[in-house]
Amino acid sequence: MPEANEPISAANFQQLTHVAQWGNGSILGVAFAPDGRSFLVGSAVGFNLYEIDTLPRWVPWSQPFFYESASFSTDGQYVLLENRRESRIYRATDGQQVFHVENVTWINSSKRTPYNDQRVVSGDWRFESYSTFDEENMSIEIVVQEMYDNVTGDLLYQFDAETMYVQYRDYHEPEGCDLNTFSMCG
User: Is the pLDDT of residue 102 over 60?
Assistant: First the structure.
């Protein structure tokens, strides 16, 4: 490993060791279990359950599922993933989808702003997610997801996921007219 004060360079990058990976794919949600010893990091293709004493368990699903919030039940037995149209519940012990549960209370609450930022508060942690653009290349959108200590306000983790910003253009419009979402050109 390079020394702590030594910058990573072409001369020493091969000394680096991959020690962890948060989730698989772009992170859509993070939720903490009530036991304080485990948490979930999820993407559209599945989620990882992390526990302090063991390696993460990867729970994939057959079709991608895009969700806006992830929550644990207060007893730590279930995980709830939901978007505006659909909710899915999984058992935390084995990752199997559950289609019916009764009298379950969820510990996270998600509040969305008009700008699609997301904020989830769970006990001692606060998870925030927002989108921004690369200052030098505006065609690169960066999804920033940060985890804070809710008591001290300290930043604990930051996940950055760069994606290319895709914009629809209709080249059949009269010259000089770009059709993004609505066009007065025709």
Answer: yes
Q: What is the 3-state secondary structure (H, E, C) of the chain?
A: CCCCCCCCCCCCHHHCCCCCCCCCCCCCEEEECCCCCEEEEEECCEEEEEECCEEEEEEECCCCCCCCEEEEECCCCEEEEECCCCEEEEECCCCCEECCCCCCCECCEEEECCCCCEEEEECCEEEEEEEEECCCCCCEEEEEEEEEECCCCCEEEEEEEEEECCCCCCCCCCCCCCCCCCCCCC
**What is the reported pTM?**
0.42
